[in-house]
Structures are given as structure tokens and as C-alpha cells.
Amino acid sequence: MPLNSQQKKTVLASFLGWTLDAFDFFLLTFLLTDIATEFHADVPAVSKALFLTLATRFIGAFFFGMLADKYGRKPILMLNIVSYSVIGALAAFSPNLGIFLALRALFGIAMGGEWGLGSSLAMESIPPSARGMVSGILQCGYPAGYLLAAVVYGLLYQQTIAGYTIGWRAMFLLSFVPALIVLFIRSHVPESPAFVEAQKAARPGMLETLQKHWGVALYAVVLMMFFNFFSHGTQDLYPTFLKKQHGFDPHTVSWITIVANIGAIVGGLAFGVLSEKIGRVNAITLACLIALPSIPLWAYSTTPFMLAIGAFIMQVAVQGAWGVIPVHLNELSPGAVRATLPGFIYQAGNLAASYGGPYQAGVAESAGGSYGYALALFAGVVAVCIIVVIRFSPERRGQVMTCSVERFGR
């Protein structure tokens, strides 16, 4: 069933919000070594910024989600986007590593709210037959943001414009750009029809819902922990791997990362659509199976061309699995807490996986600087774990979405 004009604008706004959120997050992954140099620290110390951003996202998911379940998806999404734009840009003015880490922790809170708000607004506004496709589109916002960060890094970083050399601080000032989306949302995006309808009746709160369905909620958090290990474990330190272990220049790092994220977009779209035919669980399983044979090419190749091929295949698999997650979590969640619960589960899984970046960096350094070994170890173990855990997931493809009381995961 095709989307009408308003539905398309809603999907576009949700996609752009997540894209530019991810853009800001992944800018940091390209700049770790440069920030470490300026603050006289090592890469594992600076990579704690990744940990803090991931660890605090569940706070934002809960806070902004609760507001959205009470006041509406649209206004709180606007507030959330402005918040992460301003906080992200403030990192450019950090006088030392401590302040920088604190600002990235605050950014994590703001970043944590966007996914749940955007996905619930979109999923509640479209017909059930379009959910798989839209799920893939929404989740592709993440690799699209990574791709955008790679392009900007390759084109602008260390370039001289009007006598000024663009360093890492100027890159973070680009975080102001997402705030422009708010103007589009205010003018063109309607409130979720399900939320508007729900205002006519009383709804249960999140704590009450969790008490009734704590088993499935806990299972979903464990699943999302492995999913976040899967994405961040294959993405966050990959630019560092290319720079430190292979000695590639910024241009080469940029185009390899661009190729990887083209693969991520292809995977997210393809498996999102495929999940409408073979089911959410089967689509995720297939994507993870594809990741395993790509590991040697992705982590142990020696030439930029072969590494790019490996990165393309790996991200087809990783983001292919992720492309199913927006619709899967929204279909599992009761409508009364849909702005809060999927995002909270997602970000609680992020919290559980948040120390993956520093731990990975530590494994690499203890192995003589072999970031390839650390990447391969994480990718292989986590792919197998997801395959095992996802087979226990409920399947609720095509579930009717309202904001009234619904079953959860049954």
C-alpha cells in the first residue's frame, strides 16, 4: 500500500532526525586520534567518550519517551532534536578531556530519545503492509549518518579555507545543522494518529506495563545488548583500525567507510523489505549468517580495495539485521507506552554494551595494536549470539498498532 503525502513527510522527518543524530555520533569515531593528541591522552582514554554516549542514551530514551507518551510524539521529537544539536556543537569548545567527556555524556542523553520518538511516530502513521520497508528506511538513517560523517571528514578535515585549517573542533560545530529539521517537522509533519486517538481513554503507565511483561522486556534488552555490540563493535573503531594499523590517510579512510555505509544502506533496505515476506526473526537470522564468512576479508585484508569489499559485505549483514529492529520492537510493544518502551529497550541494551568500545581498544592494544583481531573477535562472537537469541523472539509481523492497551510480545 503506497504512502500518502503526510505519511511520506513523517517518515522523512524520522529518517533525517536519526541520520543527523548518527552523523554527530560518528564524527567522533574519525577524530579519536586527533582529540587524543590535543589532550595528551591515548586512544582508549578518549574512546571513553563512546562509552559515555552509549551508556547515557537509556536516560534520554526514558525521559523523552515518557514526555512523548504524555504530550505527543511530534513536539517532543522537536525538543529532542534541538537538544542534541546544541549539546553536540558545544563539544567544539571543550577546554580539556574531562569537559569533553561530560558533554558527550549529555549528548548521549539527548541522542537516546530520538530513535524511540521517530520510530513510534512513523510506525503509528503508516499502513501495516509498509512497515518492513519503512523500518529498513528508518534504520538506514544510522549508516546514512555514518556515511555523511565519512564524506564530510574526507572533504573538509584538515582543509584550509580562508586561511583557517579545519580541525576537530570545527567539525563538531556542524552539529548545529540538525536543528533545521525542526522547522520542517513543525510545518509539515502531523501528530501520530494513534496518539491522537489514545487521548480519548485512560492508558496504563510504563512501570505497570513492565511489571506485567517483565520477562519479554528483559529478553528484548538482552537482544538489544547483542545488537549494539554488533553495530558498534563493527563500526566505531573501524576508522581507527584503518588509520593506526594500516596507516591510511584521511582520504582513504573516508572512502572505505563510505563504501561500508553504502553496504549498510543496501542491507537495511533489503532486509527490512524481506522481513515482510519471511518474517522478522528469519530475516535477522539470515543477515547474521552472512556476517560470519565476511570476517576474514573485513578484518584481515591488507589492501584498501579488499578491505572496502569486506566492509561492504559486513555492513550489509550488520545493518540488514538492524533494518528489521524498528518494526520488530514497535510491534512487540503495547501502544500506550510505544514512544517510551522500544526506545528504552534499545538504549538499555546500549547501556549493557556501552563499554564495548574501550574494551575493544584495550583488547587491540594488548594484542600488539591488532585492531583487526579485536574487530574480528567481537563480530564473530556477537553474530552467533544474535542467531541463538533471536530464535526465541515472539513474531508479531503485521500487528495492528494503536495506543490503547495491547498484548506485549505474545
From TrEMBL:
Bilayer disposition of the protein: Multi-pass membrane protein
Ranges of residues in domain Major facilitator superfamily (MFS) profile: 10-397
Pfam family, one: MFS_1
Compartments, as annotated in UniProt: Membrane
Primary location class: membrane
Source taxon at top rank: Bacteria
Coiled coil residues, start to end: none
The entry's keywords: Membrane, Transmembrane, Transmembrane helix
Transmembrane segments: 12-33, 45-64, 76-93, 134-155, 161-185, 213-233, 253-274, 281-299, 305-327, 371-392
Listed SUPFAM superfamilies: MFS general substrate transporter
Name of this protein: MFS transporter
